[in-house]
Amino acid sequence: xxxxTAADGGPYLSLRGVTKQFPGCLANDHxxxxxxxNEIHALLGENGAGKSTLVKIIYGVLRPDEGEIVWxxxxxxxxxxxxxxxxxxxxxFQHFSLFESLTVAENVAxxxxxPKDRANLRERIVDISQRYGLPLSPDQTVHDLSVGxxxxxxxxxxxxxxxxxxxxxxxxxxxxxxxxxxxxATLRRLASEGCSILYISHKLEEIRALCGAATIMRLGxxxxxxxxxxxxxxxxxxxxxxAELDPPERSRRVVAKDAKPKLVVDRxxxxxxxxxxxxLKEIGFSVYPGEIVGVAGIAGNGQTELMDALSGExxxxxxxxxxxxxxxxxxxxxxxxxxxxxxxxPEERNGHGAIGAxxxxxxxxxxxxxxxxxxxxxxxSQARTVDFARQIIRGFDVRTTGPKAQARSLSGGNLQxxxxxxxxxxxPMLLVINQPTWGVDAGAxxxxxxxxxxxxxxxxxxLIISQDLDEIFLVCDRVAVIAGGRLSPPIPVKQAxxxxxGLVMSGAxxxxxxxASVREHA
Amino acid sequence: xxxxxxxxxxxxxTYASPVLAIVLTILSTGVIFWAMGxxxxxxxxxxxxAPLVQAGGLSALAVKAAPLIMMGAxxxxxxxxxxxxxxxxxxxxxxxxxxxxxxxxxxxxxGWLLYPGTIMAGxxxxxxxxxxxxxxRTEFNVNEILSSxxxxxxxxxxxxxxxxxxxxxxxxxxxxxxxxxxxxxxxxILIEGTGVHLGCLAAPLAAIAIWAxxxxxxxxxxxxxxxxxxxxxxxxxxxxxxxxxxALLTSGALAGLAGMFEVTGPIGQLxxxxxxxxxxxxxxxxxxxxxxxxxxxxxxLLLALSYLGGDAxxxxxxxxxxxxxxxxxxxxxxxxxxxxxxxxxxxxASPRAKAIGAAE
Lengths: 522, 360
Fold this sequence. Notes:
Number of strands of chain A: 23
Low-confidence stretches of chain A: 1-8, 509-522
Largest sheet of chain B: 2 strands, antiparallel
Strand order of the largest sheet of chain B: 1-2
Largest interface: A-B, 39 and 24 residues
Structural class of chain A: alpha/beta
Strand content of chain A: 15-25%
Number of helices of chain B: 15
Helix content of chain B: over 70%
Strand content of chain B: under 5%
Number of strands of chain B: 2
Distance between the termini of chain A: 67 Å
Structural class of chain B: mainly alpha
Largest sheet of chain A: 7 strands, mixed
Oligomer: heterodimer
Radius of gyration of chain A: 24 Å
Distance between the termini of chain B: 20 Å
Helix content of chain A: 25-40%
Shape of chain A: globular
């Protein structure tokens, strides 16, 4: 019966009973989804709710075990992404697939199914980008472009194929608030011209502003279909996590005037060892005991480099560039820094902060062996290490079978709780965390925020590097922005607005003053 | 018929894969015997069983297995750290040259000093050779696979030069060999009347020591981390340079020690032929033993059997000695092939493929 309504403005895309089983995990459990013509439809859910699996099925990357897909009135089996594109389904992935050393036009040409499509490509790129307010010049090399511009390439690449459905996976996580507004204008325009949009996100306010309908998923199942503008963000969140949401309240602390900073970074300049990395330029800031400082910024503006410089993975040459409790540590490696009281949690969990193939107790040993005396005479003290891992598991409510479980058997949120627990339980004087809740569900995120607040309460200095502005505004006392490898002077969060921070994130402020302001305030 | 990703490592197949590979290797070797005009059953018996049941078979196995186990355990450590030393043959040769040179230089030194000196010389020789590889890797970023392999040929030509030139035995009727080592520099026999020598005991002990190092010590932990996740090792502050040196020096020293035992034991002198490719076979030993030092003991015994079987096949069946190489090659090939089962599941026909077929 749905098939009949499709022709006269019924659902463009409808999924019925789609089920996908992965080893040990039912990723999609009889999912129904309907996207109408001209509709911007939100697919909402926590990490691990099954959103990505579902869109991969729609886009032909995965095949469903059960269920059917009806596309514009016809039952289809989407064989592959190329098939999906022929059907008129386009997708913009969260992680772009662009070649940095090629130009915009070359990158677009590489994504074309048919060589014939490459004719007049430059003109068509310019045409599309002007029509939809996505300014791009076809001859620019990708590595010179900002993340927002790169996303435009991906969108233009999709639009060139005249899609009838555009899937966007977490498109705003890499954009400044201003860029988000521009993107929304483009999406609304597209929808009005007959291209439906399936919009995946966990950002509730965005969904309320943009989407006309929403499907909410939890643990692989659809828990609700609703109209987002009729619900409050809190109601949506509670549907998403099936629990009353209790936002952590943190009383902002004002640091005493005479307090001595735990961390001082002074005119830190490091050339990135990676060909397309970001050089750190004249970074200067301090973190005082008891406060949480946030470093906001769009990915790829020097966050990784800053983290590596602070953790000692890439020592910064001159010792006095970084002071930890007054001790010059710029030249020293991670082990010396840990001995002095610096603990670190990198962004990437698997293969950086933890080793997936090793047990939790081995992973506990990785960074805590010195501060928790887990080694004796050059040998690993099994008893002490297992005991420490057990303490972390208990103290941070890590859901696992025990200290002998492999790190890779844990979900992202649980592993992140373990890694943060590992560092927090070493009683650090300074804790630096890159993207504390990246890929972490709301419950785990709340636990992490609580742990960080408690640590600061006890007098430690905490530095958070995050792309998530909401997170920074929720937990931090002061905020600085990193853009193009330069850091703006930190300002109290109470005095900052999201718009203002967004402007600095886009690099506007840093460019106009040529970094002079950074030096003055450092 | 296709392979479906399991999503996680199968513990069962981690250990069953080598067993399956061995079974398939025996079957394939049987086919080759058959193609060469032999009845596969009796030929397989000659190759795999007869060497063990004949008189002195087990002691011959122990003698052949000793260098394989010693080097295989060292290589297992190296490979666990993702340092791909495939030049154990060269390190074995240099260890033998150093030990032999020491024994020839001081033939009259008292045994209590001479023999330990010979052991040290073997260890140092192998470590120096591997140290060269480590130096090239850490200083100039030279790929250790290439440098360690190519240095093997340098070592072999050095050996040939020495035994045909400056070190040639003046009383040796012009044969390319040195004088026999003196009594004090000879590896003692452990069981009278057999060839079982001190090295046959030292090899499993070395494997156990490597196992303890890898699984219990901080250093072993660091080696495993750098092999498994180099970025995590850097994050923890482990020095990759240092660990590359440790891995190469340890495996090199063990290979050198194996070379020392071989020339001061079963051979008794330096000749141009001191190894039937033990160093390369040890690579198979390490992988067949799942890069576990204890696994190397079992794998070493099996591959030692392939040497004895090759001899038996040559003598009793008139087959070429290359049978050993074929067996070892097929084994490594099938082992790597069977390892796909650790990460992938074999599916005869996918139910989904049927469903899709029906839908169309």
